[in-house]
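User: Could you check the structure of this?
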Amino acid sequence: MTSRRSFITQSALAFTALSASRVLGANEKIRIASIGLGGQGMGNASRMAKVPGVEIAYLCDPDTAALDKAKKVYPQAKTTQDLRKVMEDKDIDAVIVSTGNHWHVLASIWALQAGKDVYVEKPVSHNIWEGRKLVEAARKYNRIVQGGTQQRSDPLQDEIKGFLDAGTIGKIKYVRCNHYSMRATIGKQAEPLAPPSTVNYDLWLGPAKDEPIFRQKFHYDWHWDWNTGNGEMGNWGPHILDDLRNVVFRDKVTLPKRVIAGGGRFAWDDAGETPNTHFAYMDTGDIPVIVDFHNLPRQKGIKAPDVYLRRRTGAFLIIECEGGYYTGSRGGGTAYDAEGKKLHTFKGDGGKTHAANFIAAIRSRKQAELKAEIEAIHYSSAWCHLGNLSYRLGQKYNREQAEAAVKDFQPWNDVIADFHEHLVKNELDAATLDIKMGPMLELDAAKETFIGETATPEALALLTREYRAGYEVPQAV
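Assistant: Sure, the predicted structure tokens are below.
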């Protein structure tokens, strides 16, 4: 097995040679390795394979069952459980990183050090510090790195910007970012879950701690464990908050100035750690932002997700303006006047050209052509991490204190009222629940760190993580 130190040394040498030689012509085939072959990984591979001139040439997953399944789709591709073998292959031009969140940055940095371009799924990082390291690596090795927020390639977003700029519904007052979706308990076992016999568990863990797992299903439900995932805030949040940063702030607001969040994991009594009800306030110094996620049903006994006021269930981005509002989700949205009259309907394509945009930038070698260049998506992912950090630092919830945390801003009181109504409809008594309310974290956006009284050792520690030996994200990329 190649040691990490020798791997990086070899990769640096390989990069020196490859950087001069792998300038691809317009018609030359681009050979891609797909790392992580779950549902999203196979979907990403399929979208890349449909772009003319692209070949899925290498398949990688620590689970041989996933490899065997993928091999049936791409029979000519090489296979391996160890992503380091992919990095050593000089014939691979780019990698798709669709692993668990805890692997996103290290896998991407290893690929960059080996002279390869990278498409990395959202969130592009497991924490804020390592996200910045990924950006540093992209700059150092001058590679093409695209984030997996495919809606950035949807013409819809530019249309919405144009509509807002026209002033038809006036100045933006605030934005509410919602995602209400049904999920179920992941169960809780008395004894630790044994990984499937087909899984190389060391490679699956990578940078994550080797901790016992008590959920019932090994795959996918890693999302709800802080060791490997980032909860719903890190699952749907990167899409919604990236829409916000692109459409509303035009990427000019990198990080919010202050963030406070609360919520909890209710009703299920399972092995999950991340909240299934999560709300946050993000102070940008300009347009205030509310974030609200629910995984419980609209009402106990009803198999339907929650709703928000007059807007449809699937609304992600609700932009409240002085003379009306816009509400939209993936692939479409609608603008209304102040009385609720429909003014305009926007239809998008869900970002179906995102893979082609990545491939085009590989050929041109122009980072500026990327619709979701890595630094922009690093920031969008970081917003989600901040919402999680305040929650994880939370103490016992008190409604009056929570409302007072953001004075004279009615939408904050509204989200707290909605939270209590949601609990009542699910027949949950707030007085008996473990509800958390985090501190109002203050940030130095330029340095991507906390300042003031909330820059405690506990808060600063959550900007990064402890890495397992042999799988550390390097300080110097």
